[in-house]
Amino acid sequence: MRKSNSPFHKWVSKPLGIFIFFLMFFPILFINGAYTSNIGDMVSGLGIMTEHIQFSSFATAVGMAVFTPLTIRYLEIQRPKAVYLIGLSLLALFSYFCAKTTSIPLLIFCSFFTGFVRMILIFNTLFSLLGYISGKDMLSAIKPSPIPVSPDVEDKMDRVKAQGLPFLYLFFLTIGQLGSFFTAWLAYEYEWQYVYYFMIGLVLTSLIIVETTMIYQKRLITSKLSFTKFADFVTASLVLLSFCFILIYGKTFDWFDSLYIRVAFIIFLLSTGIFLLLQINTKKHPYMDFKILASKNAIIALLVFLLGMILNSSSMLVSTFTSISMSLDNWQNAILNNYSLVGYVIGAIIACLMSKWNMHFKYIFAFSFLCITLSAVYMYFQYQSMGLYNNLIFPIILRSVGMIIFYAMAGVWGMRKLNMVFVTSWIFLMLAFRSVIGPVVGSAIYSNVMNKKQQYYITSLSENVDMMNPEAANIFSQTQMGAMMQGKSYENAQILATRSAKGRVQVQAMLSSLKEIAGWTIFFGAGCIVIVLIIPYKQKKE
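Now predict its structure.
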């Protein structure tokens, strides 16, 4: 049993303590190394490529994933106040560096360790909150136990997870979306550096609250990071980072014609080999236990995460459409994406009801993919030169419903009947597939296909755009005449008319590309539905 009001002072009431823990989630989930919601402002302000910000954002996800195998050893220390003071101070320091630096390697470094520290603080807050509410040590819930759990108790725990996890994800995704909205607003109203300054202020406020309300606790155990665990951590990080680098920068650097891509590929192969050798040779407490791959439930869940995140990457088609056809900036896109909060609420309720009705998981997964596919079907008919803002609300809500359902329920299925010995290995794989591998593969597929299709349609559509084409010649002449009437010289008016004609072709090529890719997305979504319906599901303990 825990002390009655640990880790708070006696004068802190129970409701206030719970509120403080919930409050701690906001700076943890708001803060990031690179903010994709103001990517345009950072790219223009620093004069860098968009890929740098994308890679920095994925570095944060990698940092979060590689911490999870160390979870149990870290939680055994049970010093919430010390973890908050050190972790929040580091986040403030990393945010300051990100605001001031023009160095891309330093931005990536800070982003990676921001993710690592964020994951520590998320576990610190979540398990401290659950322990504070229940009055029990929640570490025992995820630690392997020599005493077998009865099938009835195990089934009851699975039902509790299936009905509770959607609302936990609803909480996390809501805070994440609010953070994206607020950072986009700060960058729009002021400058992108103000996002980091605000985060520093939020973190410092949290530090004051922690110092004021929490008590000092002695270390329960001595936790040491062995050389093997350090090597595991480094090699796992290099595997994921090099994988992300190849897929993000491949198109920009022309794939293996670039020395950077070749070096990244060599690092990926070497680090993967060393990581596998380390896990095979570590008999006791491996960083990642590969025996988990014998669990069919875990394999199915990872497949669902991979397919779901690739399918969900079709959201970049909507972002491209709003910027090309509707000329929406990051701030307006952030407002539009707030409608996803409605989808999250609906999706969490539907997932909970499906679990309560004991619906088979294959139908739950199929329903989630159906929602995202129907969103793509709806958008297929919206890709036109004059898009309407209100027409984008429904597909965003629909896609969010599907996303939160497979987010939560795939995680539940992966842990279903799973021996607790493998829980940290499962969380590592889940985060790696859900937050790193799936999104980066989906992003690479859609960005590369979009680039190739746009070039194809530009070539195809521009073949007949010359003065021999009556319609094109008429538009060119009108544009040129209008420019000359505004006082432009004949040469400058001709240049403006040429640029106008080129812009029209580019917009039409992009719209044609979006429509074709949306069509293939619909087929891919239908294929995902078929896959999750026909694969065999195993129910017994593994």
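The chain has a mean pLDDT of 81.
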